[in-house]
Amino acid sequence: MSRPGIHRLFTPVDLIGIGGIVLIAVVAHFGGFEPVRRARAENAMQQESLTALNEAKGANAAALRDVKARLDELGRFEGRSVRLEHASKLNQRMAAIPELADRCAIRVREVVPKAAQPAKRFVRVPITIAGEGPAARISVFLSQLHLEFPDMEVVSFSIAGRADSPTEAAFFTFDLLWYTSAGPDASTAAAAGSKPSRP
Are 117 and 124 in contact (CB under 8 A)? Predict the structure, then answer.
């Protein structure tokens, strides 16, 4: 019994069926899978763009907060009747701070001014003070500093010691900004008097 030839394995109907399957596969690839792949790629690109926009939005929000803070800083003095002194009075101010501390029953051991920071409407003079005293009295000193010198701002501070003890001394450091009137020689005057004071 002879075997059928290779040409008899596939009938015309079979070949048509195989061709149809191949055609369906090609159509499925380009008509189904490929658009899905492209859609996923486009979605990934859109997600990256959205992330970049969100980051830019966050940066803009931070910049806006900074601008608002600067405007508030300007309004602090424009909206109140605070008369700014000239930076040439730096030595008097450096002497007045320890005197106020004495009245509040604490001791200021160092008063150290730093380089003036000129602005358009005023000049900021950074001053660092350090000393010691009971924590409760340090709090009183801060309140009095705000009342007697409204042209000064406490920008940072640190206190080391027992805050719950009414008598035990705590050590403190305050970073202040003294706002002085702007003038052609304000920064020079502040620099001329910027020598550390140790009461």
Answer: yes
